Every structure is written in C-alpha cells, then in structure tokens.
Amino acid sequence: MKILTLIKLTLDISQLKYESTGEPLTEIAPKKMGDSDKCAVEEAVRLKEKLGAYTVVATIGSTSENERIIRDAYAMGIDEGYIVKVEDPEILQATSIGKIVSSLVEKTGPYDLIILGAGSLDTHSYTLGSIIASKLNIPIIAGVDSLQYVDGFFEALCIMEDGAYTFRAKAPLVVTVTTEANEPRIPTLKTILRSKKMEVKTLTIHDLGVDDVVKVDLLDVKRYVVNRRKILWDASEDLEKAVDKFIEVLVSEGVAQ
Amino acid sequence: MKIMLYGESIEWIKQARTVADILDGETIGVTPSRELGNEAVKILNKVYVFDSIHYEPNSYYKTIYKIAEEVKPDLSIFPSTIKGRTLAGLYAGSRDEPVITDVVDLRYVGRFLEVKRLVYGGACVAVLRASTPLTICISQGAFKPSEKGENGKIEYFSRVDEERVQTIFKPREYLGIPLERAEVVVVAGRGFKKREDLEMVKELSSRLDGAWSVTRPLAADYGWADTWIGISGAIVSPRLYIAIGVSGQPLHMIAARNSKTIIAVNKDPSAPIFEEVDYGIIGDLYQVIPRLLEKIKKKT
Ligand SMILES: Cc1cc2nc3c(=O)[nH]c(=O)nc-3n(C[C@H](O)[C@H](O)[C@H](O)COP(=O)(O)OP(=O)(O)OC[C@H]3O[C@@H](n4cnc5c(N)ncnc54)[C@H](O)[C@@H]3O)c2cc1C
Ligand SMILES: Nc1ncnc2c1ncn2[C@@H]1O[C@H](COP(=O)(O)O)[C@@H](O)[C@H]1O
Fold first, then answer.
1. Confidence class of residue B174 from pLDDT cuts 50, 70 and 90?
2. Contact residues of ligand 2, CB 6 A cut-off
C-alpha cells in the first residue's frame, strides 16, 4: 500500500495581529502544519505501522517553512517528502492546487490512499480533497472522524449535523480527516534528529507539466467588523439588575413573557 | 444569468434566491428531497428533484453535474456546510471552475463579480474578483431571505449511483428542536465546570422553546455532547443566541454571527465575545443563570 498525505503551511490564526487600518499582518504571524493535516500524517503513519504502507508527504509552497513542515512529518514517521514550488500558494485557486496535486499523483503514484486535512486553519475552504477526487475520478470520504481498515476496505465514520454516516470503500480513495480522527504523536528526540538528515525533494509545477495555474484576484483583506449594540451590565456589581435586564431582552425578543 | 442552487432546507433556498435577486438571474434549484422540491418551486423558476435515501457525496455530485450539463449555469451555489462544501469541491473540480466558500456578499462590478468571503477562521473578510462560470458556498443566514415567489416547474431526475462506496446512516435522535431550526439557541462553553452543570443550559433552552449546544472543547475534548457550534460543527442563525461561559473565538463565532441578537454571560470583561454581542452580562454564570432560572420560573 502506498499513501500520499498533503500538508499545508498555515497561519496560526490565534496569533494574528492587525494594522490600525484592519489589515492582518500575515507576514509576521507564526505558521505551522495545519491541525487536521497533522491528523492525516498520523493516520498514514499508523497504516504504515499496521500494514507496512509506504508513506509520502507533499506540500505546495515555496518558503523554507514548507521544508520545516515536511521534516515535522518525517519526525512523525513519513518516508518520503516533496515540496512543489509555487510562489504565493495562498492566492492560487483551489482548483489549480487540485490540478497540481493530480499531476503529482500521476508522476509519483499510483497511490492507494490520498489523505489530507478536511479543512485548513486559515482559509478553511474544506474543498481541496473533493477537487482532487473529482480530478482523479476516484471516490472521496470527507470529514472523517474515525478511520479503520478492515478486510480490504477503508471504513470511515463521519459525524454530521443530521446523524452518523459510515462510508466503506476500497482503494484508490481520497480521505479527508478532522481533528477528531486521532491524537497525533509527539516526535521523539531520536526521530527529530533522523528527520533532519532525510532528503526533501523539490519539484516545480513545470516538472509536473502544469503550466496554467490560476490566481485568485484578491482585492482586499480586512478584519471583520462586527456591528452589534454591545450593551453590557455588570452582575458582580448588581446581580438583580443584570438578571432583570437579561429577562427584558428575552421579553423584547419575544421568547419569554 | 443562470443560477443553479443545491439546497438542503427551504430557509437556505430563500436566502440563495436573494443572491439571484442581486444578480437578476434565473433560478434553477436542485434537491434530493421531493418534499423540499415541492416547496422550492414556489420560490424558484425550476427545480430538479432526484430521489435519494441518504447523502453520499460521490453519487450526489455526479447527479448534480449531469443536471448542470442540461442547465448550463453561470453561477452554482451550495450551502457552506460540510456536506455542501464537499459537494461544491467535487462539482467545481469536475467542471474545472473556481470555487469560493464562506461567501457573505457579492455584486457585479463591470463584467466581474466582486465576492466577499470570510477567511482566517472568520476573523477577516477578503474581497475577491471572479468571473463566471463560478461555484460559491453561502452559509445559512449570510443573506436575507428573498420574499419573491415563482410558479416554477418540477422535473424528476434519476440519481447517478456510485457503486464504489457503501453507506450506512444512523440519523440523530433529536430530543427537541433541531439546532438549525431553533429560534433560540443556548450554548455552553468552558466556563462550565462539570457535565451536570449543563442541566442549567438544558433547562433554560427548554423554557425558551429553544435548542442547546456547546463549544467544541466541551464536545470534542470532554465528550459532554455529540456536536458543537462552529466552523467545524453546526452553523446556526436563530433569532436569539445565548452564549454562556463562551470566550467568543472566531472559529466558534463564525457559525453564530448570523443570529439576529446575541447575548452573552462571561465573567471576564475582556473576553472577545463582548465585542460581538448586542447584550452582555459580566458575571459568574453560577450566580447569573440559577437566579435567571428562578425568576423565569416564577413568572410562568
Ligand atoms: C481547526 C479548529 C477548528 C475549531 N472549530 C471550532 C468550532 O467549530 N467550534 C468551537 O466552538 N471551537 C472551535 N475551535 C476551538 C476554538 O478556537 C476555541 O478554542 C473554542 O471555541 C473555545 O471554547 P470556549 O469558549 O468554550 O472555551 P474558552 O476559550 O476556554 O472560554 C471559556 C470562557 O468562559 C469564561 N468563564 C470561565 N468561568 C466562568 C464562570 N464561572 N462564569 C462565566 N464565565 C466563565 C472565561 O472567561 C472564558 O472566556 C476550533 C479550533 C481549531 C484549531
Ligand atoms: N498549499 C497546500 N499544500 C498542501 N496541502 C494543501 C495546500 N492547501 C490545502 N492543502 C490540503 O487541503 C486541506 C484542506 O484545505 P482547504 O480546502 O483549503 O480547507 C488542508 O488541510 C491540506 O491538507
């Protein structure tokens, strides 16, 4: 079995700071491997341990930090890694990233399983896995909370708003995992040291035969401004008044008498 | 302009129709439910209904793709739910057109569409320029429901099956009003110390004929509930959203922002949630909520 895992270098949005004009300072925000991508790596490494799968990881981007997250994946147990060099991957259309990944699959595959995060931390489109599946014309199981491999079938549990879905399918398959899927392992000093010595391969999109990447025409990004009344009452000063005000709101909204 | 929309609820379809109103487009709906189809024809020019037992994205998108081959839409709209995004990605990927999720506004500027979407977990809004054909996802509540009606036509379409995937579905047992439909949603956050304390939240929601839920840590980390509200959970747009012991991180708030009114109880006056509320009570929930329940009980 051969598995491809995709990992994205994402902004740590909890540490995002802003210009006084509301522009996010994305350049200085810390970046890391996406949380659900880490769970995808963990899932791949577990399949390696259980079934002897060969595991490959890839990221699309151009900075030295992309290399860092490949090494993070090596430290968790991944065998081989690729960086596909593109400037500003964050403003590439998702369909273009999908095209790059399907060409990578053709060049370095075939893969039995392509596993990636359900949604990235920063743009959270939750679409890349689906785009890849449609391009490769293989099925997808998206938003997986728990993945099993039984009798030649991948069996996945997905909890959704209306209930629990269990999907079963054979390879080849695309799976996107949520952060519920597992608890990613913490690399040991030994695996970290080993990861530093491993080779990271780079490819350009031209190596993959992709020439026409489409960029998103981004006009502006600003902090979301919330227009709400923001009327506050302090219950530690006057509990009765605060509770009465609360009830007034319930009454004026028509949900209590 | 032809606009195709794949809908899961009538409330959402009315809002997607508003997008068509903005763009002055013809509206063609697609739904896997006959019941919803019958309602949707009163709002849309045409509705395709394909019969289905339950959601399976691979078979659904192939069906929607086939319908689109007939319709030839310029703009295709899906819900910004996990299911909707999955379908939108499959659909846009197979049509080789761009897909933009979390769309909160759009308009024509010259020949282009100017599209606003949420990014960075809902902390920012990005403005993009796009051209058609295009696929977008909109959340329930992002647009006001359209009040326009139509006397549309219904067409039954046979579903394309996907033999490669087997599905077992266990519907959630709703013990009350489903979250998406509730007029009042009461949400508990990590300000609650013990699982039993959630009884207060359940009681408050039932007294207000509403639904209750939690933030992600309470469900995913503590296991006190099956689902949660937020970017990775349910998206709601009730008349009243009551957040108790919730800090108000963007990844949570993004799914609650379309509520008409938001009220929060939090003991920390600098909690980010107070930036996103209409009314806020600064105080200990263990004092405020029991007293509130007492007073409500006395009144009824
Ligand atoms: C990929 C990803 C996806 C995520 N998706 C979601 C999501 O879908 N939904 C979601 O909710 N979160 C999500 N999160 C987590 C999110 O970022 C926050 O961590 C989470 O929303 C915080 O939950 P909270 O407000 O309950 O807890 P906290 O942030 O810990 O806040 C608890 C609040 O309770 C207050 N408090 C404490 N004691 C009391 C008291 N006695 N009385 C009154 N107030 C009190 C505190 O002042 C504090 O503000 C996601 C995170 C990641 C990384
Ligand atoms: N530039 C990228 N390089 C590698 N993987 C990516 C990239 N962008 C997105 N992904 C993968 O796709 C998942 C979903 O991303 P998104 O559709 O943007 O929410 C992420 O969690 C990653 O696993």
1. low
2. A 6-8, 34, 36-37, 59-61, 89, 94, 97, 116-117, 119-120, 123-128
Question: pTM to 2 decimals?
Answer: 0.90
DSSP β-bridge partners for residue A59: A83
In contact, B99 and B92? CB cutoff 8 Å: yes
Q: For residue B236, what are the contacts with CB-CB under 8 A and spacing of at least 6?
A: B140, B141, B179, B180, B182, B185, B213, B229, B255, B256, B258, B259
CB spacing of B240 vs A131 below 8 angstroms: no
Chain B residue with Cα closest to A127: B89
Residue B51 CA to ligand 1 center (angstroms) comes to 40
Residue bearing the bigger pLDDT, B36 or B235: B36
A187 touches chain B (CB under 8 A): no
Q: Which of residues 111-140 of B touch A (CB under 8 A)?
A: 114, 118-130
- What ipTM was reported for this prediction? 0.91
DSSP lists the bridge partners of residue A194 as none
Q: Where are the alpha helices (DSSP H) in chain B?
A: 10-23, 34-40, 57-71, 82-95, 198-207, 216, 250-253, 285-299
- Residue A82 Cα to ligand 2 midpoint, Å, equals 14
CB of B172 closer than 8 Å to CB of A163: yes
Rounded to an integer, the average pLDDT of A77-88 is 94
- Residue B39 CB-half CA count within 13 A: 13
Which among A74, A81, A73 is positioned nearest to A34, based on CA atoms?
Answer: A73
* Alpha carbon distance A180, B150 (integer Å): 43
* Ligand 2 centroid – CA A146 distance (Å): 19
**Residue B228: CB within 6 Å of ligand 1?**
yes
CB atoms within 10 A of CB A176: 32
